């Protein structure tokens, strides 16, 4: 399953919990979601801008997006933490990617990602950004 599909399924579950009032985001949840959404938007940017970047810069921005999620996760508990934790888990393949050649030596298990994989991860993070924006106003 690709990252975008994993994130889409996660979002459906979160939206259903909010709709069913199983999850009622607190004011702290909403504030953290708003900050995370803004930080993700800064980290990832638009599809056009991302596609214009070299692989090293795209990977750097993706890792920056993961850092935003991890930092947000460290500052919250409850359902928002579970949501963010599941999102980070879905995006962990990014941590195994490399944009540079291993120069003939070991590469710590990293693999070279394809352009479609970059786009998939970037789209997944944009979906998260949009969902966190909606959570911030729930």
Can you tell me about this structure?
The protein has 138 residues and is mainly alpha-helical. 68% of the residues lie in helices and 3% in strands. α1 (3-19) packs antiparallel against α5, α1 (3-19) runs parallel beside α6 (115-136) and α4 (55-74) runs antiparallel to α5. The radius of gyration is 16 Å and the shape is elongated.
Order of helices and strands: HHHHHEEH
Gyration radius, rounded: 16 Å
Could you tell me how far the N terminus lies from the C terminus, measured between alpha carbons in angstroms? 29 Å
Largest sheet: 2 strands, parallel
Shape: elongated
Extended strand count: 2
What is the residue-mean pLDDT, rounded to a whole number?
95
Per DSSP, the total helix count is 6
Q: Reading side by side through the largest sheet, how are the strands ordered?
A: 1-2
Helical percent range? 55-70%
Computed structural class: mainly alpha
Low-confidence stretches: none
Strand composition percent: under 5%
């Amino acid at each position: 399953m690709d990252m975008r599909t994993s994130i889409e399924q996660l979002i459906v579950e979160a939206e259903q919990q909010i709709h069913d009032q199983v999850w009622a985001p607190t004011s702290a949840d909403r504030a953290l979601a708003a900050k995370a959404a803004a930080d993700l938007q800064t980290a990832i940017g638009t599809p056009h801008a991302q596609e214009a970047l070299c692989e090293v810069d795209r990977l750097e921005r993706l890792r920056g997006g993961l850092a935003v999620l991890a930092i947000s996760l460290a500052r919250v508990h409850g359902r928002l933490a579970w949501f963010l934790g599941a999102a980070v888990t879905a995006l962990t393949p990014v941590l195994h990617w490399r944009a540079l050649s291993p120069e003939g030596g070991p590469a710590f298990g990293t693999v070279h990602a394809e352009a479609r994989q970059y786009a998939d991860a970037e789209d997944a993070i944009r979906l998260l950004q949009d969902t966190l924006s909606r959570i911030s106003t729930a």
